[in-house]
Amino acid sequence: MKDRLQKIRNEAIAQIKAAGGMDALNDIRVSFLGKKGELTAIMKSMRDIPPEERPAFGQMVNEARQEIENSLDTMKKDLAAKARELQLKSEVIDVTLPAKKNHLGHRHPNSIAQEEVERIFTGMGYEVVEGPEIEFDYYNFEALNIPANHPAKDEQDTFYITKDLLLRTQTSGTQIHTMETQPLPIRMIAPGRVFRADELDATHSPNFHQIEGLVVDKNVTFADLKGTLAEFAKQLFGEDTKVKFRPHHFPFTEPSAEMDVTCFKCGGKGCRMCKGEGWIEILGCGMVHPHVFEMCGIDPEEYQGFAFGVGLERIAMLKYEIDDMHHLYENDIRFLKQF
């Protein structure tokens, strides 16, 4: 029995020294010290030993167990140290290499232009109001004095969802919602995405952005409109910017006008940017039509107002000299990093 015990001890220690990894060590532990291990089996055979020899034999078994466990722990530490050393060698860092560059996102030119426009008008006391992109035909057309037979309501020009619901073609509907629900006076701008069935080219897209403004108060005149938009143009394009108003027609304003600004590239002398004219068309505007007020429950004899609308992409393209609107939608980081 003693010879068998010595043989088990020697065999266990030899296998431990030859083990090549943690899994092999675990198998050795189970093989010799587990419930069905060889050392456990020899303990069960103690009943065959004379009683007077059992204490001495039990001590020998415990010493063998302790020696095997110590050998297992020592080998486990050696294997862990070797594994760590290999890991450090494989993951060595060359401190002379340049650090990895952290690429941050960049604001879109449209966002930059919108924030600047909002800053200008909020500085004048205007409120920024958002409205739904899916709008009722009434708010997009009828309440803006655009009758049912108007060409703009043709399905070739407008994305209809149902007979009464559509993708808004302008943010003017937000103005109607505001006039119906908010107390007077009103000073607001309504930025947002709009949709029209336009053909794709360098200056048109079926999906673009507008910023429309509205003022409703007592004793508002066209002079207030001109003064407001002149100040807006100066803050946006520079203090030397001049404005020019040309008569135009919009169903929801009367009188109506389109506003030009002196070319901020050549100062009005004529260049490629302004096509030699010295002026650039920037927005449409006018005094709110009395019928629009009446449909919103506002007395046109007591209140007057003006409205204006500008394309956000147009501002960005002019301000940053972008020659194709579609550059704004392609998400090319090389293009966006310029702004």
UniProtKB/TrEMBL annotation:
Any Pfam family hit: tRNA-synt_2d
Q: How is the cofactor bound?
A: Binds 2 magnesium ions per tetramer.
Identify the cofactor(s): Mg(2+)
**Residue stretches making up the Aminoacyl-transfer RNA synthetases class-II family profile domain:** 117-318
Show the Gene3D superfamilies listed in the entry: Bira Bifunctional Protein, Domain 2
Q: Which PROSITE patterns match?
A: AA_TRNA_LIGASE_II
Q: Which GO biological process annotations does it have?
A: phenylalanyl-tRNA aminoacylation
Entry EC number(s): 6.1.1.20
Q: Binding of Mg(2+): at which residues?
A: E254
* Sample GO molecular function, one term: ATP binding
A single GO CC term for this protein reads: cytoplasm
Q: What is its main location?
A: cytoplasm
Q: Which subcellular locations apply to this protein?
A: Cytoplasm
Q: Which UniProt keywords apply?
A: Aminoacyl-tRNA synthetase, ATP-binding, Cytoplasm, Ligase, Magnesium, Metal-binding, Nucleotide-binding, Protein biosynthesis
**What top-tier enzyme class does this entry carry?**
ligase
Q: Which reaction does it catalyse?
A: tRNA(Phe) + L-phenylalanine + ATP = L-phenylalanyl-tRNA(Phe) + AMP + diphosphate + H(+)
Q: How does it assemble?
A: Tetramer of two alpha and two beta subunits.
The family line of this record is:
Belongs to the class-II aminoacyl-tRNA synthetase family. Phe-tRNA synthetase alpha subunit type 1 subfamily.
Q: What name appears for this protein in its UniProt entry? A: Phenylalanine--tRNA ligase alpha subunit
Phylogenetic placement of the source organism:
Bacteria, Bacillati, Bacillota, Clostridia, Lachnospirales
